[in-house]
Write a structure and sequence with these properties.
With about 160 residues, this protein is of the alpha+beta class. The chain folds into two domains: about 1-55, no CATH class; about 55-150, GMP Synthetase, Chain A, domain 3 (2-Layer Sandwich), CATH 3.30.300. The protein is built from two helices and eight strands; from the N terminus they run E-E-E-H-E-E-E-E-H-E. It has a three-stranded antiparallel sheet, with no helix packed on it. A three-stranded mixed sheet has the order 5-6-8. Helix 1 (about 55-80) crosses helix 2.
């Protein structure tokens, strides 16, 4: 068993809390020592009560799925002796009502573009197989109800 710790810290700083005129800006503090600015999404709570430049929970959710998939993909590629030079993903999460009528992140689509070098470069089938395996192993994807899709972007060699 492993434990993962993240602190969420918000302070009122004299703002009109009872009048609902307070900033949703907060700090996300991770056990490695990094502080990341957090906020509600401007799609949910309008600016200036939200901070567009901060990470909102929906973005953090999407990025955690993308990051987990990438880390598994890199591990699998290394074990298969394929040299990855660059991995970039522009993951997109869709928030809409689920079958129970509740707002939820219903679909997250990963769009990883991976470039390789060296004597052994995987073909399209091998890349798809590695993405499938990465998806099956991803702890985060295995922890959520959200449909997680992977649509690799293929780069010219």
């Amino acid at each position: 068993m492993a434990e993962y710790v993240a602190e969420v810290i918000w302070t009122r700083n004299g703002q009109d809390f009872l009048g609902n005129r307070y900033s949703r800006e907060h700090i996300l503090r991770f056990d490695g020592g990094i502080d990341v600015p957090g906020s509600s999404s401007p799609h949910v709570v309008p600016i200036p009560m939200s901070v567009a430049a901060a990470v909102d929970p929906e973005e953090a959710f999407v990025s955690s799925l993308s990051s987990c998939h990438m880390l598994w993909f890199l591990s699998i590629a290394a074990k298969r002796r394929f040299c990855v030079d660059r991995y970039a993903d522009k993951a997109i999460g869709v928030m809409e009502k689920n079958p129970d009528g509740k707002l939820a992140m219903t679909v997250v689509t990963l769009k990883p573009a991976v470039s390789f070098s060296g004597e052994r470069v995987p073909n399209r089938e091998q890349i798809e197989k590695m993405h499938h395996e990465a998806h099956q192993e991803c702890f985060i994807a295995n922890s959520v109800k959200t449909e997680v899709r992977c649509e690799p972007v293929y780069l010219a060699v």
